[in-house]
Design a protein that fits this description.
Blueprint (H helix, E strand, L loop, with lengths): L3 H15 L1 H16 L7 H11 L17 H11 L32
Length: 113
């Protein structure tokens, strides 16, 4: 059975391939926190900074700039790519691994009035 987690993971991989600059800034902003002396930090905090300070990701009109569903995947990827900082972001087992995939396309700004 394909799970919702599998579905989100694939959507995240597709997004990452289209918008590699998001990863570059995620790494940059995370290392800023590490260099400031933080032993742990919020991946959501890094993500929100991306939204606030930069025009990265999609255009925000036809596609959302940055989907919150991707945060844990970026956090896990960071710790995998930089094993010295494993545990910098706290993660937990996602519930989406226990649910069936929706088979629906990702929502876009056009889905909201």
């Amino acid at each position: 059975m394909t799970t919702r987690r599998d579905e989100i993971k694939q959507q995240c991989a597709d997004y990452h391939a289209k918008h590699p600059e998001v990863w570059n800034y995620f790494v940059q902003f995370t290392f800023e926190k590490i260099n400031q002396g933080y032993k742990h930090y919020s991946a959501m905090g890094v993500w929100q900074r991306l939204r606030w300070e930069l025009s990265v990701g999609a255009d925000g009109v036809s596609e959302f700039k940055i989907n919150n569903n991707y945060i844990p995947y970026y956090a896990r990827r960071f710790m995998l790519m930089y094993p010295k900082h494993d545990g910098f972001f706290r993660t937990r087992e996602p519930h989406s691994g226990k649910r069936a995939a929706t088979g629906l396309p990702e929502l876009s700004p056009a889905d909201y009035a």
